[in-house]
Design goal:
The chain is an alpha/beta fold and about 475 residues long. Helices cover about 30% and strands about 15% of the residues. Among the domains are: about 140 residues, Aconitase, domain 3 (2-Layer Sandwich); about 180 residues, Aconitase, domain 3 (2-Layer Sandwich), CATH 3.30.499.10.
C-alpha cells in the first residue's frame, strides 16, 4: 500500500465525513475574514436566525479597503463612504458574534496573511481558510490553507466545516542554491512561468528540495502565497527546524507539555516514502535569475536579461492573439529588452512581500541613495507589528531619507480597492502577486518583481538587474 502525501495526511486528519468519491466534510481550525467577503455571510446567518458556532476560531481584519496614509494609527479614517460602511458592518458583526477583529485604528492592524502567522495563530497541521485566494500562504508553516467563496464563509461560520472537493497531488522539487540577488519571489515567478498560469490547476502543490530547505519561513510564505497564480488549490512545505523556530517564537499558547506534544505531531507531517504524486516537476535553483513580468498574467515573465516575446513566433493562433493583447496593454514592443524600461511608480508591500525581511532588503539597497526623479515609490508594511519593527531597526528612517513614502499597513496598491491606485498609463514596478489588466488601477501597467528588484527600479527610474547594481549608478 503506497504511503500518504503531506496533503493527504492534513485532509485525512480533518475529515468529518465522506460525502462521495471526491468530496468530504472538512473541519476548519481557523477561519479568517476581511471586510469585503464576509457581509453576505453574516446576513445569511441572520436571515436563518443562526449564530456563529465557534467564535473563538474566527478572526477578522480590515485590510483591502483601508487607506494607508502616513497618519498615526488612532487617526486612521476610511473616507470613502462605501468602504467605511463595509468596515463598520464588519465591526458590528464581529462585536455581535464575539469575534476578534483587527480594526481600522488598531495599532496591530495589517494584511490578514501577515497578521495571522506573526501572532502565532498558524501552526503546522492546521486547516486555515479565508475568503481570499492567497490563503495558500499558510502552507509555508505546514498548514493547509486555501481561499473560499462567500457562501462557503457562511457555512463555516454556521458549522465550522466546509464541503470540500479533494485536490490532486503535485510535487515541485527545487535543488541547488539560489544565486546572489535571487529571492523566493524570483523562484515563484520562475515556477509559475515554467508550468503556466493553469499548470497546477486542481492540485495541492508540495515543495521540497535543498533550495526550499534553505529558505527562511518568511521567504516560504512568499513562495506559497503566489503558487495560487499557477492555479494551485494549496501549497505546502513540510515543517522542519525553520518552521519550529518561527512558530514557537510566536505561539505563546505552546509551552511545556503542550509544546512537546505539538512537536511530536509536527514530526509526522511529511510525505511518506513511496507516496504517489499525480504530477511532479524538478527545477535547478542555479537556473533561476531575477524575474520580471512583461504582460498581464503572472506567467508572462522573463529573466531581467530577457526580452518581450514576439507573438509571430507563437504557432498557436489563440496563444498568439493572447500574447499580442498583453503586449498592447502593457505598452511594450515585441522583442524589446525588459531591462531599461522606465517606471513611474514603485510599490513595495502586499501579503506577498510586506514582511520585515522584505523591508530589510529594500532599506539596505536604499542606504545612501535617492529615489530617481519623477518616480513615486511607496513602501507599505504588511502589519502594524512589521511597521513598528522596521522603525525600531532604523529601516523606516533609511527609506524616508532615500525618498520612499513610508505608509501605514494595508493591502494598498496590490489591488484597486482603496485610494492607492495607478493612473491610466502609469507603469509600476510591484512586489505584489498579480499583474492583471486594471489590477492596480484602470489602465495601469504592472511589472511583478522581487523587493530587491523593485527597490533598484525606484532608485534608478527603470527596470534594472539588481545583480549589476554597482554598474547602474
Amino acid at each position: 500500500m503506497p504511503g500518504m502525501t503531506l496533503y493527504d495526511k492534513l485532509v485525512a486528519s480533518h475529515e468529518v465525513a465522506r460525502i462521495d468519491d471526491e468530496h468530504i466534510l472538512l473541519y476548519v481550525d481557523l477561519h479568517i475574514m476581511n471586510e469585503y467577503t464576509s457581509p453576505q455571510a453574516f446576513s445569511g446567518l441572520a436571515a436563518r436566525g443562526r449564530a456563529v458556532l465557534r467564535p473563538g476560531q474566527q478572526m477578522a481584519v480590515v485590510d483591502h479597503i483601508i487607506p494607508t496614509h502616513p497618519v498615526p494609527s488612532a487617526l486612521r479614517v476610511i473616507a470613502d463612504e462605501a468602504s467605511s460602511r463595509q468596515a463598520l458592518n464588519l465591526k458590528r458583526n464581529c462585536d455581535a458574534q464575539r469575534i476578534a477583529l483587527f480594526d481600522t485604528t488598531d495599532p496591530l492592524q495589517g494584511i490578514e496573511h501577515v497578521i495571522a502567522p506573526e501572532h502565532g495563530m498558524i501552526l503546522p497541521g492546521m486547516v486555515v481558510l479565508c475568503g481570499d485566494s492567497h490563503t495558500t500562504t499558510y502552507g509555508a508553516l505546514g498548514a493547509l490553507g486555501f481561499g473560499i467563496g462567500t457562501s462557503e464563509v457562511e457555512h463555516i461560520l454556521a458549522t465550522q466545516t466546509l464541503v470540500y472537493r479533494v485536490a490532486r497531488n503535485m510535487r515541485i522539487r527545487v535543488d541547488g542554491t539560489l544565486g546572489a540577488g535571487v529571492s523566493a519571489k524570483d523562484l515563484v515567478i520562475y515556477v509559475v512561468h515554467r508550468i503556466g498560469a493553469q499548470g497546477a490547476r486542481g492540485h495541492a502543490v508540495e515543495y521540497c528540495g535543498t533550495a526550499i530547505d534553505a529558505l527562511s519561513a518568511e521567504a516560504r510564505m512568499t513562495l506559497c502565497n503566489m503558487t495560487v497564480e499557477a492555479g494551485a488549490r494549496a501549497a505546502l512545505i513540510a515543517p522542519d527546524a525553520t518552521t519550529d523556530a518561527y512558530v514557537t517564537a510566536r505561539a505563546a499558547q505552546l509551552h511545556g507539555d503542550s509544546l512537546a506534544q505539538a512537536r511530536d505531531y509536527w514530526a509526522t507531517l511529511r510525505t511518506d516514502d513511496g507516496a504517489r504524486f499525480d504530477a511532479e516537476h524538478v527545477f535547478d535553483a542555479a537556473d533561476i535569475a531575477p524575474f520580471v513580468t512583461w504582460g498581464t498574467s503572472p506567467d508572462q515573465a522573463v529573466p531581467v536579461t530577457g526580452h518581450v516575446p514576439d507573438p509571430l513566433a507563437e504557432p498557436d493562433q489563440l496563444a498568439r492573439l493572447a500574447l499580442q493583447k498583453a503586449i498592447d496593454y502593457i505598452g511594450l514592443a515585441a522583442g524589446a529588452p525588459i531591462a531599461g524600461v522606465p517606471v513611474d511608480r514603485v510599490f513595495i508591500g502586499s501579503c506577498t512581500n510586506g514582511r520585515i525581511e522584505d523591508l530589510r532588503v529594500v532599506a539596505d539597497l536604499a542606504r545612501g541613495r535617492k529615489v530617481a526623479a519623477g518616480v513615486r515609490a511607496m513602501v507599505v508594511p504588511g502589519s502594524g507589528a512589521v511597521r513598528a519593527q522596521a522603525e525600531a531597526e532604523g529601516l523606516a528612517a533609511l527609506l524616508i531619507e532615500a525618498g520612499f513614502e513610508w505608509r501605514q499597513p494595508g493591502c494598498s496598491m496590490c489591488l484597486a480597492m482603496n485610494d492607492d491606485v495607478l493612473r491610466p498609463g502609469e507603469r509600476c514596478a510591484s512586489t505584489t502577486n498579480r499583474n492583471f489588466e486594471g489590477r492596480q488601477g484602470r489602465a495601469g501597467r504592472t511589472h511583478l518583481m522581487s523587493p530587491a528588484m523593485a527597490a533598484a527600479a525606484a532608485l534608478s527610474g527603470r527596470i534594472v538587474d539588481v545583480r549589476d547594481w554597482s554598474h547602474t549608478q
